[in-house]
Design a protein that fits this description.
This protein is of the alpha+beta class and 423 residues long. Helix content is 36%, strand content 22%. It folds into two domains: 291 residues, Zn peptidases (Aminopeptidase, 3-Layer(aba) Sandwich); 127 residues, Alpha-Beta Plaits. It has twelve helices and 19 strands. Strand 17 and strand 18 form a beta hairpin. It is elongated. The chain binds zinc ion.
């Protein structure tokens, strides 16, 4: 591609930066936690209409996707929670098409009292923009939009369709992306601007969500030893999961060789008891467990269930009253990519170096992303590449604004390098 075309597009990115920043702030100000994504999706629809894209809006249909590989069973409905797809149609289609996918759902900012800045305020302090989802991943969604806008404003035409997919449900199932792919919104390649600090994703763990219910015996605390404390029995199972976690981390496959602790078990939600002077008779734990690529979610479930029941068998009470173990939400398979063989990563490497002057580094993730659907079930080359910041899922999450500007230029360059430019 002509150097002058690239320079023109980069100039357009810089020129539009104040408008891009205002758009990012508007995205972060939409509190798009699970069940409340409609507002941010209306904003994305309006953005796509302004850009002259073909706009599609639809709610994921559980009946249509529940038998597909990669589906994760939700315990909630998709009513009023749409995906939005914007297609920038190429007039000449002799190049490659591209999907730019990014999730607009964010996790809860609670406890809000731990924040210095309003989690929905999108306050800018120096080079940082603070807010829930600022980093994960509204800045990435914003960057992919403004990368396309810069190409449009430079009057450059690309030779393949560019399909923008702001999706719901990345943080709990991935069914938003699965529904997009099932509807036929695919492409010859895909880039997801998740916040990987300007590195290219080459591997990610599998993720499972589960729930453990333990029954005890309620009693007045004055005779606590006659009761069975369900909260304490759940601790037996948490300790067992820590042992499984340690064992898996001692058996790292090559893709995670350079990662200190790839597999994380997280007791995320606990409910038990209702009175300080009563021995609690019920306790429920919701957890997240990682596992390696190459293992199906079904195998991972068996591994976790067998391990928990084995631990329960060593406890006199739990042996007679085994825990109830169920799984819901994430049934996400892990994946590993080949940095040198992936056409998306190889093209991105060129685009990234052209903008930053630095070589593109690979990264193996200890979390999951929607990239798995493209690679594992649709055979579409994919990677994640996005901005830098800190404290994703924590208090005072922030994105570094200079990295957003840089990533926008890299994505714009990548779109042109991947799809080709009509001279
Ligand atoms: Zn994310």
């Amino acid at each position: 591609m002509l150097e002058s075309v690239k320079k023109k597009v980069w100039q357009e990115v810089e020129k539009a930066w104040p408008r891009q920043l205002a758009h990012l702030q508007a995205l972060v100000r939409e509190p798009s936690i699970l069940g409340s994504e409609a507002g941010v999706q209306r904003l994305m629809q309006a953005t796509f209409r302004e850009m002259g894209l073909e706009v599609h809006t639809f709610e994921p249909d559980i009946g249509a996707i529940c038998a597909l590989p990669g589906f994760s069973p939700p315990e909630w409905s998709y009513r009023g929670r749409p995906n939005v797809v914007g297609v920038w149609k190429a007039s000449r289609k002799d190049g490659r098409s591209l999907v730019l996918n990014g999730h607009v759902d964010v996790v809860s900012p609670e406890p809000i009292s731990h924040w210095t800045y309003d989690p929905w305020g999108a306050i800018v302090v120096g080079d940082r923009l603070y807010g829930r989802g600022a980093l994960d991943m509204k800045a990435g969604v914003n960057a992919m939009v403004w990368a396309v806008r810069a190409i449009q404003e430079a009057d450059v035409l690309v030779r393949g369709d560019v399909v923008l997919q702001p999706v719901i449900e990345e943080e709990c199932t991935g069914n938003g992306t699965l529904a997009c792919l099932h509807r036929g919104f695919t492409g010859d390649g895909c880039l997801i601007p998740e916040p990987f600090y300007c590195q290219a994703l080459v591997a990610q763990v599998g993720v499972l969500w589960g729930r453990i219910k333990v029954r005890g015996v309620s009693y007045h605390v004055m005779a606590a030893r006659s009761g069975v404390n369900a909260i304490e029995k759940v601790y037996v199972l948490i300790n067992a999961m820590r042992k499984l976690e340690a064992r898996l981390n001692s058996e790292k496959p090559p893709a995670f060789r350079d990662v200190a602790w790839p597999i994380n078990f997280n007791p995320g939600v606990i409910r038990g008891g209702d009175w300080p002077s009563t021995v609690p008779a019920e306790c429920e734990l919701e957890f997240r467990m990682g596992f390696y690529p190459g293992m199906t979610p079904e195998r991972a479930k068996t591994l976790v269930r067998d391990h928990l029941l084995e631990a329960a068998a060593t406890d006199p009470w739990l042996k007679e009253h085994p825990p109830e173990i169920t799984f819901y939400g994430f049934h996400a398979e892990g994946m590993a990519l080949d940095f040198n063989e992936s056409p998306v990563i190889q093209t991105l490497n060129v685009s990234h170096q052209g903008v930053t002057g630095r070589p593109l580094e690979p990264v193996a993730s200890t979390a999951t992303t929607d990239a798995r659907f493209f690679h594992l079930y649709y055979g579409i080359p994919v990677t994640c590449y996005g901005p830098s910041g800190g404290r994703a899922h924590g208090a005072n999450e922030y994105v570094e604004l200079p990295s957003v500007l840089e990533v926008t230029k890299v994505i714009a360059t990548f779109i042109m390098d991947w799809c080709g430019v009509a001279q």
